[in-house]
Amino acid sequence: MNALAARRRHPAAIALLILVGLLVTGAAYAALAPKPAQASTVSADQVQQGKKLFQANCSTCHGLQAEGSKDGPSLAGVGAASVDFQVGTGRMPMTRPDVQAPRKEKVVFSEEEIAAMGAYVASLAPGPAVPDQEFTDGSKGDPAKGGELFRVNCAMCHNASGAGGALTRGKYAPSLHNVSGKHIYEAMLTGPQSMPVFNDNNITPESKRDIVAFLHSVDKQQNVGGMALGRLGPVSEGLFIWVFGLGIMIGFAVWLGQKSA
């Protein structure tokens, strides 16, 4: 019995138990941790095509190898999702240096060209991939849950209805009306400009889909009260009342005074 007890107390046994515990913990985390929305694969030809497009159109600001310069940041590690968002919304390439790149209706590159540039940037360093359609389709999400998440995490900048708002130093939170689910998801995933990053550990892919569902439901709402006034809440409504309501009352009072005179 003494020999058996000594073997159990051997330091190697303790190390073995610790190793087994670490393996079990790692396996459990791998099984339960949030999975990325997509892990896409690309071909070498697509990467080379993207490199040519990048060097011809983006290297002036971001450098020939996307290493960055005084006019643009390094793109190593931003991932294909950032490229898809910035170029797919017309924000890039910028027409001129400014405090913020505005969204433009006209997109310079095709979807294939954007995907190629994204593949090239993704090959430089690991980064967020373009999300799968399963997680960007708002029709599959829960608008009620998405509304709660949006009001907690996003409304302080983008307004409770996603109408946008002013920030400091000339920057602003853009309107989220009529924005595709993919670009909404990518903005949360990559944190463009002044926006913080909401990775899948902060907000899961399913919760991001719920936020997309909420914003798309806002797009479909009718203004039963008449004019929306930008959906900016009591500020725009109060200004309207002061300017037009009070103006009408003053005009009516002047008319009554002239009539009585």
3D architecture notes:
GO terms for molecular function: heme binding; iron ion binding; quinol-cytochrome-c reductase activity. Heme c 2 binds at residues 154, 157-158. The cytochrome bc1 complex is composed of a cytochrome b (QcrB), the Rieske iron-sulfur protein (QcrA) and a diheme cytochrome c (QcrC) subunit. Its EC number is 7.1.1.8. By secondary structure, the protein is mainly α. It is built from 12 helices and 2 strands, in the order H-H-H-H-H-H-H-H-H-E-E-H-H-H. It has a two-stranded antiparallel sheet with strand order 1-2. It starts with a helix and ends with a helix.
At a glance:
It catalyses: a quinol + 2 Fe(III)-[cytochrome c](out) = a quinone + 2 Fe(II)-[cytochrome c](out) + 2 H(+)(out). This protein is mainly alpha-helical and 261 residues long.
